[in-house]
Specification:
With 207 residues, the chain is of the alpha/beta class. Helix content is 22%, strand content 29%. It has 5 helices and 21 strands. The strands form 5 sheets. It has a 7-stranded mixed β-sheet, with no helix packed on it. Strands 3-6-9-16-19 form a 5-stranded parallel β-sheet. A 4-stranded parallel β-sheet has the order 4-7-14-17, with no helix packed on it. The protein is globular. 29% of the residues are buried.
Amino acid sequence: MTEYEKMHNGMICDCLTEELAEVQKNSHRLCEQYNKLGVDDEEEKKQILKKLFPNDDFGVFRSMETPIFIDNCKEIRIGKNFYSNIHFSFIGGNTAEIGDNVFIGPYCTLATGIHSLVAEERRISIDENGVAHDFEYGKPIKIGDDVWIASNVTICGGVTIGNGSVIGAGSVVTRDIPEGVLAAGNPCRVIRKITEKDSMYLKAKRE
């Protein structure tokens, strides 16, 4: 089993291997190209997004404000009709799966990589051939359909967020969030169910 296969399966792996480094460099290059484009360069942006996410169905639209940072484009899948505000980041280490009709606010991070709590195990080592090694592992992230992630949210590896839920601004999500709820905080916790009373149209009528 290759180090890349170990990473994909959530096993301890050497993240400095040439195979993984090449995938990351390709992702970083595409992000650099994307982030240099301006507000009027929509067609060029679309073409780069197609290279970053070649297996995704974009649906009606995919809009990602610059800058973005995708650490490993092979390990993230995004559904139809996706929007992310500025500074959206996916930090590799395992997979991320995002459903349809998901909105993500500014300065949000999906962090799947996990380092050891033991200091000696976190250190980058150099072997007798002068080759560097960095051992870590990761856990997947899954975000369901129709989820809204508000600004400045960090979602940690191993978390699943259910369909239709909303994650409040500034949250750090370290555990699963069920569907159809408003959740917020550090660590993020369920506040309440989302109901018809939360309709912005009903609120507008009352006001």
